[in-house]
Amino acid sequence: MKTYLKLTIMIFAVVLMVSCEEEITVLQPLESGHVQLQTDANVSVPENDEDGASFEVQLGITSNAEGYTANFEVTSDDDTRYTVTPSNGEIYFAPNTYEASITIVPVDNIKSDGSVKVTITLTDDNAGVYANDELNSVELTITDNDCPTVIAEEYTAEVYLTVSGTVYGPKTHTVTPVEIPGMDNTYYIANLWGTDYINWAFGYTTAGVPKYAYETLLTIEEDMSVTFTPQNTAGLTYGGQPDPIATGGTGTYAACDDKWTLYPEDDYWFITANGYITTVILTSE
């Protein structure tokens, strides 16, 4: 690969120097100056690289006494996957400087959205070596580091109860998520708490009564948090009113481990109103 060196003094001819069998080529800049990338070698960085990739831009001009501004653009199929510095599409060479940089830093999301290619292009008429197409663009690939969301047919549920800072449990049972057609990443679970947990923790007899087993819809959001939607398919009532015990809650889903961590709440005195916390962890084989 060729290496192009900028002039720091006024030189108006191409000078070829030969010493110790090594050739050094000093390029004469255009009269009005030109800008070029230091390299056009493509680069790849993982999505979780906090430093990203920097690309040096060189100014070929006989003198930069007053400062110089060049323009560039960054293109890709998804501009939400990275940040660009400078963000205004302008590279500024301060007086008496001849190098500047463009930096691309990936955005580390938690979605499995594949790799994305990002192209940096110098856009001025004098961009590239002597304003030709050489060294005026470079490509960066941001590789995804997230796992796809693949929901298992069956999970082992471990249910814990926290009372005044003391954790009790777990009680275990099996849950079978049922995907809801027409609702993205939403699954019905009939027995999130499980009857064994309820009998163990509170002494209720729950045979045939889904209320205390905690019937709910769970939705995995884009940020991999989990939201709860109440369900009451059995038509249970309390005080003459419909009584779905699943009224809310929070949680997270870890796609790489296929693991749910859930904190369901209830609608009245049963657990939440007493300051108790139920934690349900779902893991697949």
Describe the structure.
A hairpin with a 2-residue loop joins strand 1 (15-19) and strand 2 (22-26). Residues 1-28 and 205-211 have low confidence and may be disordered. This protein has 285 residues and is mainly β. It is 3% helix and 44% strand. The chain is elongated, with a radius of gyration of 31 Å. The longest helix is centred in the last third of the chain and has 8 residues, at 195-202. The chain has two domains: 15-143, Sandwich (Immunoglobulin-like); 155-283, no CATH class.
Measured between the Cα atoms of the first and last residue, the distance is: 52 Å
* Annotation, overall tally of beta strands: 22
Residue ranges: pLDDT <50 for 5 or more in a row? Answer: 1-28, 205-211
Average pLDDT, all residues? 80
- Helical amount: under 10%
Q: From the 3D coordinates, which CATH architecture of the largest domain would you assign?
A: Sandwich
Spatial order of strands in the largest sheet: 13-12-22-21-20-17-16-15-14
| Structural class determined from secondary elements | mainly beta
Report the C-alpha radius of gyration, rounded: 31 Å
The CATH homologous superfamily name of the largest domain equals CalX-beta domain
Shape: elongated
Please indicate the count of domains.
Answer: 2
- As a percent range, the share of strand residues is 35-45%
Largest sheet: 9 strands, antiparallel
The H/E string reads: EEEEEEEEEEEEEEEHEEEEEEE
CATH topology of the largest domain: Immunoglobulin-like
- Report the total helices: 1
Question: So what's the CATH class of the largest domain?
Answer: Mainly Beta
